[in-house]
Amino acid sequence: MPDVVARLRSSLPRPSLRTVVTTPLRRRTYGNLLYLVLAFPLGLGYFVFLSVGLSLSIGLSFVLIGIPLFFVVLATSLVLVGFERRLATTLLAIDFEAPPWRVADADGPLDGAKRLVSDPALWLGLAFLATKLAVGVAAFTLLMGILVPALAIVATPLYYDTPGVRVGVFLPTELTQELSLYIPWNELLVGVSFVVRLSSWQVTSLVDAVAMSLGGLLVVILGLAVLDGFAWLCGRWARLLLGRSMLDRFR
Fold first, then answer.
1. Three-state secondary structure along 30-62?
2. Would you say which domain of life the source belongs to (predicted)?
3. Could you give the CA distance from residue 34 to residue 27 in angstroms, rounded to a whole number?
């Protein structure tokens, strides 16, 4: 167990101020972004395909139509798993060895069916396809919650003076907080106290809009770093289920 924890710690990325600041300048960042953008629609498509295909094949198995349909779903899944491997290696720059399909060495249709059903690489691939929707939902949430609002802030100078549009920081009420620091000295209590007030602020000039845009640019850089970290996790998940590391445990 300690060896596993040590290997996990050694594989974790160690971001620094330099790596975070240079995130928008790296080509790999945009490959990660494309992978995350595609994760939700692909995951939704895989979920519909597997849930409908497997449920129909099981439900129609008593009239024998479900059995060939089941193998059609498995064979199609081989293609989808191969596509996901290529997607991970191309967009996430993840290098891993793809295990061979057992069905490739089949001596006939019956032997091919047996090899297809008994191939652990296929079932691990199906597990990856089934969890792709959860990955896609998380990616969509991060993209819409971090990157999209940040880009809207960066574009503030383009629309801040549009009629009917208000841009800024708007609070329901003014926030007031008193901060105090007291230090005992002999028989006296020496201290300082001041009041901090936070109120709404609206962009009304080009200077304010540029300041808002610069703040949004900082959020974009930090957001890209967060998305890069999530893409790193996606790559490790793909390597685990689509590579040989997990498959070797079945042998």
1. HHHHHHHHHHHHHHHHHHHHHHHHHHHHHHCHH
2. Archaea
3. 11
Question: Which pLDDT score, from 0 to 100, does residue 4 have?
Answer: 42
Q: pTM of the predicted model, to two decimals?
A: 0.79
Residues 230, 142: Cα–Cα separation, whole Å: 9
What span, in angstroms and rounded, lies between the C-alpha atoms of 85 and 59? 31
Burial 161-187 (b: 16+ CB within 10 A, else e): eeeeeebeeeeeeeeeeeeeeeeeeee
Mean pLDDT over residues 60-86, rounded? Answer: 87
Under a CB-based contact definition with an 8 Å cutoff, are residues 227 and 150 in contact? no
Asked whether the beta carbons of 106 and 112 are under 8 A apart, the reply is yes
CA separation, residue 68 to residues 36, 64, 145 (Å)? 34, 8, 44
pLDDT at position 8, please?
46
Phi, psi of 219, rounded to the nearest 5 degrees: -65, -35
Give 198's strand partners. Answer: 175
Asked if 53 contacts 71 with a C-beta cutoff of 8 angstroms, the reply is no
Check residue 5 and give its pLDDT: 45
CA–CA distance, 129 with 118 (Å, rounded to integer): 18
Helices (H) and strands (E) in the chain — how many of each?
9, 4
pLDDT exceeds cutoff 80 at 33? yes
Q: Centre a 10 Å sphere on the Cβ of residue 88 and count the other Cβ atoms it contains.
A: 22
